[in-house]
Amino acid sequence: RHLQAAPTTCFSLSLSLQLEYAGASPVQLRFLRLHSRLATQKVSYSCRPAPEQGQPQPEKEIRFLADSREQSYAASLQGCVLDNESSITDTIFQFTTEELSLLPLRDLAVFHNGDASHQFGFTVGPVCFS
Q1: pLDDT at 95 > cutoff 90
Q2: Contact call for residues 93 and 64 (beta carbons, < 8 A)
Q3: Order of strands across the sheet with 89-97?
Q4: Residue 58 confidence (pLDDT)
Q5: Which residues contact 126 (CB under 8 A, 6 or more apart)?
Q6: Beta-strand pair 13-14/118-129
Q7: Cα–Cα distance between 79 and 49 in angstroms, integer?
Q8: In angstroms, rounded to a whole number, what is the distance separating the alpha carbons of residues 110 and 63?
Q9: DSSP-H helix ranges across the chain
Q10: Residues forming beta bridges with residue 121, ordered by sequence position
């Protein structure tokens, strides 16, 4: 007896003002959703605190807009803290869903108190259907 892994199709993010995925037309996404049972996507938040900053920053709220544009995910980001091992703090968000219309993510927003004493960025990984 041989076990065969389910085929997986992934689309990578291209740079633009909105989150758009190279090679992922609406027709192709619809086809993938019809023939898949699971979708996954990973987003990494990285921040670098200012060296003079001694206290951790307050938490920030982040919202991820689903592909359906009718639903969003909300989460809290921990304050950016300088430690001895690294000057960059990473937080990983892993999205896995059987509701295939929710992925890929289309937009994200960070809500904070206006504190701009650190640098931060996001890396949006590919969306994979299997």
Answers
A1: yes
A2: yes
A3: 9-11, 118-129, 39-49, 89-97
A4: 66
A5: 10, 11, 12, 13, 21, 41
A6: unpaired
A7: 9
A8: 7
A9: 26-34
A10: 46
**Amino acid letter, residue 11:** F
Q: Which amino acid is at 68?
A: S
Q: How far apart are CA 66 and CA 74, in angstroms?
A: 11
What are the CA-CA distances from residue 71 to residues 28, 74, 99 (Å)? 21, 10, 11
Name the maximum alpha-carbon separation found in the chain: 61
Per residue in 77-94, pLDDT (tens digit) is: 776 666 655 677 788 899
- Give 79's Cβ-side CA count (13 Å radius): 14
Q: Does the pLDDT at position 98 exceed 90?
A: yes
Degrees (nearest 5) of the Cα angle 13, 17, 21?
A: 20
Can you read off the two tokens belonging to residue 50? 């200012």
**Euclidean distance between the first and final Cα of the chain, in Å?**
22
Whole-number Å distance between alpha carbons of 119 and 5 = 40
Give dist(CA 84, CA 100) in Å, integer: 41
**63 vs 37, 48, 54, 106, CA distance in Å?**
25, 21, 27, 11
